[in-house]
Amino acid sequence: LEVCEAVMDVLQPTPERPILFNLPATVECATPNVYADQIEWFGRNIRNRDCVALSLHPHNDRGTGVAAAELGLMAGADRVEGCLLGNGERTGNCDLVTVALNMYTQGVDPKLDFSDIDAIVSTVNYCTQLPVHPRTPYAGDLVFTAFSGSHQDAIKKGFAAQEAKNDPLWEVPYLPIDPADLGRSYEAVIRVNSQSGKGGVAWVIEQDKGLKLPKRLQADFSRHVQRLADETSRELNAADIWGQFEATYLARDADRFRLVDYQESGSVGDRLFVGHVAVDGTEQSISGRGNGLISGVIAALGGSTGPDLDVVDYNEHAIGHGADAQAAAYVECRTPDGRTVFG
């Protein structure tokens, strides 16, 4: 303090032209809270504080460079010296990306542009020839990615709630910042492997194909995806998941029962289904009555070729908007022996 004030006597700083005093934590000899106490003491005791720009220079030898910077700012410092992504001597200087975006998540504008974080990472890689770890806060390839089933389910519900509310405030579990604010897409937020649950699988297929699977279908399909992940021992992409969905639930030429064509007629609540089905490759005519198309089909099958099914649940929704919108329908049925099947 005495040395700094002696220098001030010589240079005569003013509020318009302040003197810069840099207080480093070069080898992090103290914990972040002690460092912040030192900053606070200096700021309170230096004379003519309005003529001083109090600067921090934390390193990361104890792994607490960001914490030291944040506590130092709260203790009264005016600025932080550091490096992008924590480069520097030994374990590196304070990571300015993390400090700035931590401030951003708390509603404080750091006045730094990280709207294209991948370009910044690429530039740092090129200039330093040092890789950025995939789990580096905010900048790593995996920092917005969830593999755990419980995390994926919470993120999926969070996105649904975010979309439904009329409020731009970002509140999605496990994502402290909107990836889009950093130029990232939502595509890699949820990735599927053997740890993933039904929420993650449902998220991927909704983002890829627009299908909003009912809850019980999500649970059923996730078992098939889990088995595929175990068999392949790798991460599954959207094409893998869609291929499994097609093989499990959609009609194929090799199916034992195949609908050839049909007609529906009648009044509301009393519909007549008349159609042709191929059973083991042989076409047959079937007909049945019900209160709708689905119940008419079930009645026709049960009265002739089988199988005998009870409809447990039916859901449908539009895919897209406007005149070109398509529709998806989901049927849950129960067999006489108590098995549940979906289509």
Describe the protein in words.
With 343 residues, this protein is of the alpha/beta class. Helix content is 36%, strand content 20%. The protein has 10 helices and 9 strands. The protein has a 3-stranded parallel beta sheet with strand order 1-2-3. It has a 3-stranded antiparallel beta sheet with strand order 4-5-6, with helices on one face. Strand 2, helix 3 (65-74) and strand 3 form a beta-alpha-beta unit. It is elongated.
Strand order of the largest sheet: 1-2-3
First-last Cα distance:
77 Å
CATH topology of the largest domain: TIM Barrel
Specify Rg, calculated over alpha carbons. Answer: 31 Å
The CATH class assignment of the largest domain is Alpha Beta
In helices, the fraction of residues equals 25-40%
* Helix run count: 10
- Please state the structural category: alpha/beta
Oligomer: single chain
Counted up, domains total: 3
**What is the average per-residue confidence, as pLDDT, rounded to a whole number?**
91
What is the CATH superfamily of the largest domain?
Answer: Aldolase class I
Please identify, by name, the CATH architecture of the largest domain.
Alpha-Beta Barrel
SSE pattern = HEHEHEHHHHHHEEEHEEE
According to DSSP, the number of beta strands is 9
